[in-house]
Amino acid sequence: MTDAMPPVPGLSMPVLSVSGLHAGYGGKPVLQGVDLAIRPGEIVAVIGRNGVGKTTLMRALIGLLPAMQGEIRLSGNPLDTLPVHRRARAGIGYVPQGRDVFGRLSVEENLRVAESLCVGRRPDLQRAYDTFPILHERRRQRAGTLSGGQQQMLAIARVLIGQPSLLLLDEPSEGIQPSIVQDISRIMVALNRKTGIPIMLVEQNLDMIRAMAQRCAVMDKGRITADLSAQDLQDRSIMRRHLAV
Amino acid sequence: MASLLNLLYQCGDSFAFLVLSALGLAVIFGMMGVINLAHGEFIMCGAMVTVSVARLGLPLPVAIACGALVAGVIGIVLERLVIRHLYGRPLDSIVATWGISLIATQGTLILVGSSLPGVGTPFTSVSLGGNSYPVYRLLLIAVAVALLGALYLLFNVTRYGTVARATIALPHMAEALGVDTGRVYSLTFGLGAALAGLTGGLYAPTMTIVPTMGGTFLMEAFATVVIGGTDVFIGTAPAAAVLGVVKALATSWEGQLIGQVALLVAVIAMVRVLPRGVSGWLLQERG
């Protein structure tokens, strides 16, 4: 198996390993050879200017965009040839930009749709409700009537039903008020500590990145160009350079 | 009193015919955005199977169920072979389903002949207020209402319904939540086809069974779906109710022909008042 990064001593096989990934729209590759590995238990933020391919990377990982070239492995198993629903069932928990809750379905129905993720095991709605108690309170309400923050919680709770082996969060702070962004960051970090689930986060919001990420992969022109440590994350000048739009 | 009761019966009868004609078409159009011009042939298929099975000596309800089942299975097969490749291409799917319709009509004519011997209408008539009403047609009114209710429950209470509504709203997100959307579309098309087959079976005892019989239903089905729009539940039933009243009033005033004319005039007038996206466009396409 070819890893995107050399194996780190003392850590097991990466949960996600991406190598040489090319993908894009209408034959034009936006991703031009992405190499990336997410190890068990980590929270990694993918940062970079607008249009460098962060969302494209997320969509390519879940399979909404076909890979033109390269390899995606989840816990060592190749994902490239699987359709979207099979990748989701294999353990990719994808929370898209803009949340995409089913607005005309109730909160509980939104969660029930995600029961399709559970093949051969009993779906556990209670776990989702325990992580986000507000959703239990609102379970009969139409998802379209929830606030942005609550919709984000629902979008995350939905993929948790499948007990994913990796969470992909695409701009979870977008359009959400700062206090709720803090709440969500706190809940996600707690979940990561408790269950060890690795999280890959595409984000522009520096506060959220600092609150959650242990390292940052910097994207530029369709590739990962730098890897920033937790110390770098605290350095304003470094972060500003990489996040500047 | 007697004439009022008669008019009420006429309204109910037209309503049932419109609802039963339209349901399969409405499910496929509303849930999948596919305009199925072979809808009438699924109805014809249901009717043919029903009379064939009934003539073997099996009870009529069993025969009707067989008609629905066979139409549904053929629907699923056609979805896999043809329709699946044309999602997101409404015009192409119209041409393809029209082609299927022509092949089915002519194929049936060659294989089965110009008509099948029918089965008699079961039950007799009841007298009310000096007029007599065929019990079977009264039963069809009840079946139409019951089917609307059953479909409502299917889409709002069952797991298939929840997943289907999610798939229709945001197919990509449903997939990312593990839903095999191909299977959902396949089942939904099969459901629409089975509903059409059921309609054919239900009306088989009341009609002459000929390969072109689908046409009788198709016009009324389209009228109802055009007015109803994309929502099966808040669309089809009220549209059928309004058109049913219009048609019954005009028919009792000047006969069948004027009833049909009034129906079309009502459709045109309502689309002018309520142009509803694809529905309006559809009428334009069909002239």
CATH topology of chain A: Rossmann fold
Number of domains of chain A: 1
The side-by-side strand order for the widest beta sheet of chain A comes to 6-7-8-3-9-10
Number of domains of chain B: 1
CATH class of chain B: Mainly Alpha
Largest interface: which pair? A-B, 27 and 17 residues
Q: Could you give the order of the helices and strands of chain A?
A: EEEHEEHEHHHHEHEHEEHH
Q: How far apart, in Å, are the first and last alpha carbons of chain A?
A: 37 Å
- The CATH architecture of chain B: Orthogonal Bundle
Describe this structure as you would to a colleague:
The complex is a heterodimer of chains A (245) and B (287). Chain A has 245 residues and is an alpha/beta fold. Chain A has one domain (16-243): 3-Layer(aba) Sandwich (Rossmann fold). Chain A is 35% helix and 25% strand. Chain A has 10 helices and 10 strands. Chain A has helices at 54-62, 84-90, 107-113, 125-131, 133-137, 148-160, 178-195, 206-212, 230-234, 236-243; strands spanning 16-25, 28-38, 43-47, 67-74, 77-78, 92-95, 166-170, 199-202, 215-220, 223-228. Chain A has a 6-stranded mixed β-sheet, with helices on both faces. In chain A, helix 3 (107-113) packs parallel to helix 6 (148-160) and helix 7 (178-195) packs parallel to helix 8. Chain A is globular, with a radius of gyration of 17 Å. Chain A starts with 15 loop residues before the first strand and ends with a helix. Chain B has a two-stranded antiparallel sheet. The radius of gyration of chain B is 19 Å and the shape is globular. Chain B has one domain: ABC transporter involved in vitamin B12 uptake, BtuC. Chain B is mainly α and 287 residues long. Chain B starts with a helix and ends with a helix. Residues 277-287 of chain B have low confidence and may be disordered.
